[in-house]
Fold this sequence. Notes:
The complex is a heterodimer of chains A (230) and B (249).
Chain A: E1 2-10, E2 13-22, E3 28-32, H1 39-46, E4 54-58, E5 62-65, H2 77-87, H3 92-105, H4 121-134, E6 139-143, H5 151-167, E7 171-175, H6 179-185, E8 188-192, E9 199-204, H7 216-229
Parallel strand pairs in A: 3-7, 3-8, 5-6, 6-7
Antiparallel strand pairs in A: 1-2, 1-4, 8-9
Helix pairs in contact in A: 2-3, 2-4, 3-4, 4-5, 6-7
Chain B: H1 2-20, H2 31-40, H3 42-76, H4 78-91, H5 96-107, H6 111-135, H7 139-147, H8 152-188, H9 195-202, H10 208-236
Helix pairs in contact in B: 2-10, 3-4, 3-6, 3-8, 3-9, 5-6, 5-8, 6-8, 8-9, 8-10, 9-10
Amino acid sequence: MTLAGVSRTFGDVEALRDVSLEVPAGQVAALVGPSGCGKSTLLELVCGLQLPDAGTVAAPRAVLMPQGDQLLPWLGALDNAALALRIAGTGRDAARERARPVLAALGLDGFAAVRPAQLSGGMRQRVAFARTLLAGAPVLCLDEPFGALDAITRAEAQAWLQAALAAEPRTVLLVTHDVEEAVLLADRIVVLSPRPGRVVADLPVELPHPRAATDPGVIALRRRALERLR
Amino acid sequence: MLAALLLAAALGAWQLYTVVGSVDAFILPAPSDVAASLWEDRGLLWSNFTVTAREMGVGLLVSLVLGVALAVALHESRTARRAVYPLLIASQTIPVVLVAPLLVTWFGYGLTPKVAIVALVCFFPIVVPTLAALGGVDPGQRKLMATLGATRWQLLRHVEAPSALPALFVGARLAVAVGAIAAVLAETAGSESGLGHLMLQSIPQLETARAFAAVVVLSLFSLALYLGLTLAQQRLLPWAPLRPEGPTP
Lengths: 230, 249
């Protein structure tokens, strides 16, 4: 997946300026940066939901997991996850059968018929992630997937995301404002500047999995990334 | 409960006024006279009620089908919206009182002119909230459907239509409330039966209590339809909690 000299402007607001980024297949790249630095815009460009004003985006099919879970309130967890397959043209029963094991792998066995309003925030994110996986795209663009979760739920969420990606590797662009999360999950951390967003640092994360927030390597890298953010 | 207390108080005051003030029953019948008429004229009221109920039922059904179809068409096509929406609003300024007799001369004393009037009055409150809800879908949900590669039809089928259903119910409840008036109005323009016809006949015959009884029957019918719609919404759309803004069963 390659972005070359990409810029994007909305009216007077320059969101991204001359961003170049290459992410090899199977890599998990975290994008960190201050609020409003164009991280979400970058994901939408990769997913083809927007077109760049300058530069080129070359990516295989990419699917966005938008901010907030965007579950449909009238569907149960299973049907929400299966929505990606339904849109791809699969019949209802076949879509449910294929979505069932994905939900189960994320620990949501008994919740197939439960509607989003009755699910906890952590569970809702799992359903949203199952839906994103089931879209079957080689590239996943996750926009602050755990931004709304409390610290304990967030740690759990990071664990299941890691397990899911280990079981079924994909190329991942993970937008987060949490540097620690980036260090724990990603193979590489791309630091963006305040608006207009530019790449100001590209730090490889060469630490073995599983990583803990208290590992010296994690702490050291987190400090380096935070320094680049200032 | 509160509504029942309020109603009881109003009825009590009314009864007292007619008894103490010795008002003639054909000018203002006491609630007890109306109750008596409800019982004594039950056969007459029932046979006329079935006529009005049919007019309202068919009219509401027609307005529902037309209203939903029009809302979807206007939602899907900007051109249709620009061409038809002004006409839609203009259609609501048509004085029904003038059109009703005209429709009777065109279609006769039967069901058709009543259904036309009820539909004309009722489709507007169905179209407006439904159209607004179809267009008011959460942008995040639209983005989701876009990234999943949804077609225009899939967006309508999986997101826009379900999220517009609560608004459709709001519109249907409004339609039920105005539909009763529309049916009675249509009947007064020319009919051989129906509650409106009965009211119109009863007053010159000095059977004022009977006219009031007909109004009571019509009110109860509208209320029952309203409650039926509320129940149906609770059953069909459990994910859209009803705000307790109206009568609940």
